[in-house]
């Protein structure tokens, strides 16, 4: 019996454990974040809407998870002359 | 004040209904008044496991929709005084359960019993979220197997997000019951160990129910395993779980079948 064969004889449970740990680390990030993005989008929209007239459809919030860094991308399309009178007088 | 407990798992076939029946019967055996509620609309089975399938007249949907009063739908167990069953409907679909209607029925049940145990359907759809909605305590049932552990992780996420308690900012008490556990296989490295599952799911352990022939024997005859053979290993695991739920401190052991010297001697011939 070779060395590899000897090692694999230790059973399949450690493999199950490792696969689960890797998978769940990803899934927890994905399912946890999907809610976070919705909340962020709503709150960012509310802050900007206080000062400018913006279209809710034109706000894009996305989150990306890479190996070392995660990025939060916020893309807001502003119409021309979007400042509200409230801001103009302030 | 009654405690509402949901038995949930995500994955099907891991032992939710067996656990609901066993915990309900064990609580009643320990002097508590209990109602077990089947939320698996369309695929009801708790009545069958409890041996009450021929006594169902009205069900949860009838009560939710106001077609029947709660006492008309409750089936009192013939063997245990404190135990009642509220069956699910076999024919209607789960959309017949309204949020407000379920909330009203849960309030009525809280007023009548010490414990209300909700048997959740499998999956993460509306039926499962309705079953957990009003719970104070959750019992997550898992097998030491990858797909079951993964689904339990999803359900734990839902318990922290979609329940009334979570929405009020309160913590949801969660416990794990590990079922179909085989200590010998775990020892040989063929099955996830208790520690592995606990480390991955990070919720406290309520009981370990060993793989046992007694579970099938009990469901064959329509009797909760704690009632059918109280001395069996799964029955003792569930009885200990109930003591822990009641706040008692009980040492955590994986029960094994007790065999007399004579039965060991004649084991081969008897088989």
Structure description:
The complex is a heterodimer of chains A (90) and B (271). With 90 residues, chain A is an alpha+beta fold. Helices cover 53% and strands 16% of the residues of chain A. Chain A has three helices and two strands; from the N terminus they run ααββα. Chain A has helices spanning 3-8, 13-49, 85-89; strands at 59-65, 70-76. Chain A has a two-stranded antiparallel ribbon. With 271 residues, chain B is of the alpha/beta class. Helices cover 42% and strands 16% of the residues of chain B. Chain B is built from 15 helices and eight strands. Chain B has helices at 16-29, 46-49, 60-64, 70-73, 99-112, 126-133, 146-159, 164-167, 183-187, 194-201, 213-220, 225-228, 233-245, 261-265, 267-270; strands at 3-8, 34-38, 75-76, 83-86, 115-119, 137-142, 173-181, 205-210. Chain B starts with a strand and ends with a helix. The mean pLDDT of chain B is 92. Classes of the chains: A alpha+beta (90), B alpha/beta (271). The A-B interface holds A 10-14, 16-17, 19-21, 23-24, 27-28, 31-32, 35 and B 145-146, 149-150, 153-154, 157, 161, 186, 188-193, 196, 200.
Largest sheet of chain B: 8 strands, mixed
Can you count the beta strands of chain A? 2
Q: From the helix content, strand content and strand pairing of chain A, which structural class follows? A: alpha+beta
- Kindly report how far apart the N and C termini of chain B lie: 49 Å
Q: Strands across the major sheet of chain A, in which order?
A: 1-2
- The helix/strand order of chain B is EHEHHHEEHEHEHHEHHEHHHHH
Helix segment count of chain A? Answer: 3
Radius of gyration of chain A: 24 Å
* Oligomeric category: heterodimer
Shape of chain B: globular
Please report the number of helical segments of chain B.
15
Helix content, binned percent of chain A:
40-55%
Return the structural class of chain B. Answer: alpha/beta
Task: Give the overall pLDDT of chain A as a whole number.
Answer: 73
The description of the largest β-sheet of chain A is: 2 strands, antiparallel
Shape of chain A: rod-shaped
* Poorly predicted sequence stretches spanning 5 or more consecutive residues of chain B: none
């Amino acid at each position: 019996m070779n060395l590899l064969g000897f090692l694999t004889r230790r059973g399949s449970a450690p493999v199950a454990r490792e696969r689960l740990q890797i998978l769940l680390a990803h899934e927890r990030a994905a399912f946890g974040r999907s809610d976070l993005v919705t909340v962020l989008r709503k709150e960012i929209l509310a802050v900007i809407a206080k000062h400018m007239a913006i279209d809710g459809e034109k706000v894009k919030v996305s989150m990306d998870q890479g190996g070392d860094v995660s990025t939060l991308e916020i893309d807001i399309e502003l119409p021309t002359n979007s400042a509200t009178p409230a801001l103009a007088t302030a | 004040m009654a405690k509402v407990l949901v038995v949930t798992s995500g994955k099907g076939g891991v032992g939710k209904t067996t656990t609901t029946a066993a915990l309900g019967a064990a609580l009643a055996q320990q002097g508590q008044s209990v109602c077990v509620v089947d939320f698996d609309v369309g695929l009801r089975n708790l009545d069958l496991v409890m041996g009450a399938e021929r006594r169902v007249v009205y069900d949860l949907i009838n009560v939710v929709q106001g077609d029947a009063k709660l006492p008309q739908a409750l089936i009192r167990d013939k063997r245990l005084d404190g135990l009642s069953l509220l069956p699910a409907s076999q024919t209607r679909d789960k959309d017949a359960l309204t949020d407000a209607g379920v909330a009203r029925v849960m309030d009525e049940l809280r007023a009548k019993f010490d414990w209300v145990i909700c048997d959740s359907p499998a999956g993460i759809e509306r039926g499962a979220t309705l079953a957990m909605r009003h719970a104070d305590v959750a019992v997550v049932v898992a097998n030491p197997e990858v797909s079951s552990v993964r689904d339990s992780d999803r359900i734990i996420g839902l318990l922290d997000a979609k329940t009334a308690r979570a929405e009020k900012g309160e913590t949801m008490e969660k416990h794990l019951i590990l079922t179909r556990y085989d200590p010998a296989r775990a020892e040989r490295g063929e099955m996830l160990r208790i520690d592995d599952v606990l480390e991955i799911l990070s919720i406290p352990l309520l009981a370990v129910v060993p793989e046992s022939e007694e579970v099938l024997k009990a469901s064959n005859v329509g009797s909760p395993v704690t009632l059918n053979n109280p001395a069996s290993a799964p029955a003792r695991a569930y009885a200990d779980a109930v003591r822990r739920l009641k706040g008692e401190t009980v040492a955590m052991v994986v029960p094994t079948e007790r065999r007399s010297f004579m039965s060991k001697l004649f084991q081969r011939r008897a088989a």
